[in-house]
Task: inverse folding
């Protein structure tokens, strides 16, 4: 998950994933311009969090939450 230190949506995403027993690897884009540019190149987005599950780009917290609500998150995590 690409994130910054002060981001309530990053915290919410991490909590949701933790509730699913998922270990989150955080990439701090506020500390590393190269990683921020990498995030933008991969996602075409500038906002955080940007969440990947494996090679699948889920999007931000709202996308993750919607995926969870629709029942799509658990199969993605299992795959």
Result:
């Amino acid at each position: 998950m690409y994130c910054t230190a002060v981001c309530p949506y990053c915290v919410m995403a991490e909590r949701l994933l933790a509730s699913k027993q998922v270990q989150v690897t955080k990439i701090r884009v506020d500390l590393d311009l190269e990683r921020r540019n990498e995030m933008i190149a991969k996602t075409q987005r500038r906002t955080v969090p940007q969440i990947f599950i494996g090679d699948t780009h889920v999007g931000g917290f709202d996308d993750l939450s919607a995926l969870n609500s629709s029942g799509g998150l658990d199969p993605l995590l299992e795959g």
